[in-house]
Design goal:
The chain is of the alpha/beta class and 453 residues long. The protein has 17 helices and nine strands. It is 37% helix and 11% strand. The longest helix has 26 residues, at 427-452. The protein is globular, with a radius of gyration of 31 Å.
């Protein structure tokens, strides 16, 4: 660690990976390593297929299979997209998930998903491999190999127009792929963005209206804030595309993906039996469905966050508010060891701290069950009470809710409960409320009369 000064350590998620990860974390904790150094699990799906492939033998001819696997895991931690595209799509799905699914349709669906992600992120044409270029819209395996050959001949592309010189790339193909290909540090700075070359004349007009060059406009994108982009719309570039251009001009050269942050958990989870109701832990979202989200919390079994436990802001459209790979904090609602099911909640863990190893207050008698049941800063029971109190609807006048404190009642005072009138109440309920109110008024009248005598 001292010699290489790494930023992170990746451990494969295969058999024995969690035990190895725990040993690595303990070693890093006991050493003088920087606090920013982390260790995390890396998904090894499709790793055996890549290690035994001809592509791996071509990239690392003098390395054995174990070394190739270690290098591939490190690359996945750095940039998983560049490494996962080297694996055939059908090997990216676990065997149990592919049971009963048409293999041809499954492979086509995975390929479409990979193509969508690659085009969204963009491809640096001067650094991309054939495995990555083949997923660019409009390019196939043969055309991708021709791009690599032309790149080696030119010692690198300097602008997007040079793609027209590649064998197999015509006007239609260029029109399809130009917006997804990046040329970093080229002749035109706009070639490093997701803006299609068809929109370059419009950007030149916008820069001219501000009396700036394109380079000056890219260095000061805030000048576009007060520009009416709709006035520059034409038959090729519409108003919506102009709004996307406004956003993209301030992010040229940046990776649209979020920065990776490993989950921070303070408790050791070896099996599903280590989970207790009320624990608050962090996990990674692995799948989003119409009925909820699946979260990997470091166990072979993934937990399910039901749609009703996502929260109000996420409930409307979970697939837009959340993304696969996001690190989220969840509350353990229920653990079924026999059925191997874990129920989690996102909205219940918003205001709760992460669970820490067994903690005992000063003066408490030690108990063997405290470490088993009381995981966390205050124990699972205390956190459940606090979470329930925070989730209760606060009434006006509650001492913890910030309202006006209730007045002290005299010993002869009559408690008259509040009645909340609802327009859609039933007639029977109205009659019952009126009867109880009449009885209270009669009792109050008798008390006033007796005091007058």
């Amino acid at each position: 660690v001292k010699a290489a000064a790494p930023v992170g350590v990746g451990v494969g998620s295969g058999p024995g990976g969690r035990d190895l990860l725990r040993s690595v974390q303990e070693t890093l904790r006991d050493s003088d390593a920087s606090r920013s150094l982390f260790a995390t699990l890396v998904q090894d799906v499709g790793l055996p297929a890549y290690v035994h492939s001809s592509l791996a033998a071509e990239e690392m001819p003098e390395s054995d299979e174990a070394t190739r696997a270690a290098v591939s895991l490190a690359r996945r931690l750095q940039d998983p997209l560049l490494e996962l595209v080297k694996v055939e799509p059908v090997h990216l799905v676990a065997g149990r998930a592919a049971v009963g699914v048409n293999r041809k349709r499954l492979q086509a669906g995975i390929a479409r998903s990979i193509e969508s992600v690659v085009n969204r992120v963009g491809v640096d044409v001067n650094a991309a491999s054939v495995s990555l270029l083949r997923y660019v819209n409009g390019l196939q395996m043969g055309v991708a190999q021709a791009v690599i050959e032309e790149r080696e001949k030119r010692l690198g592309f300097t602008n997007r127009k040079q793609l027209l010189d590649v064998s197999g790339v015509g006007e239609k193909t260029y029109q399809q792929c130009a917006g997804f290909v990046r040329v970093m540090n080229g002749d035109n700075p706009l070639d490093a963005s997701a803006i299609h070359p068809e929109a370059y004349p419009v950007i030149e007009k916008i820069a001219a209206s501000l009396e700036m060059t394109i380079e000056e406009l890219l260095n000061a994108p805030e000048r576009l804030k007060n520009v009416s982009m709709e006035s520059f719309a034409n038959d090729v570039v519409g108003p919506l595309a102009l709004e996307d251009i406004r956003y993209e001009l301030g992010r040229i050269g940046r990776d649209p993906r979020r920065r990776f942050r490993p989950p921070a958990n303070f408790v050791t989870l070896d099996a599903i039996g280590d989970l207790k109701q009320g624990m608050v832990i962090e996990g990674i979202i692995t799948n989003l469905t119409d009925f909820g989200a699946f979260v990997n919390i470091g166990l072979p079994q993934e937990g399910l966050v039901h749609r009703s436990e996502l929260g109000r802001t996420i409930l409307n459209d979970p697939k837009k508010a959340l993304q696969v790979g996001d690190v989220v904090k969840v509350l353990v609602l229920q653990v079924e060891e026999e059925a191997q099911k874990i129920s989690l909640s996102l909205k219940g863990a918003v205001k709760l701290p992460l669970t820490r190893p067994g903690y005992r207050r000063r003066g408490d008698r030690p108990d063997d069950n405290d470490e088993q049941e009381g995981r966390g800063r205050r124990g699972a029971l205390a956190r459940n009470r606090e979470g329930d109190r925070e989730r209760e609807p606060r009434r006006f006048g509650d001492s913890y809710g910030g309202g006006r404190p209730q007045r002290r009642k005299g010993k002869d005072a009559i408690a008259v409960p509040k009645v909340q009138h609802r327009s859609n109440a039933k007639k029977g309920e109205d009659a019952l409320l009126n009867t109880s109110l009449a009885e209270q008024l009669a009792a109050l009248r008798e008390k006033i009369v007796s005091q007058g005598k």
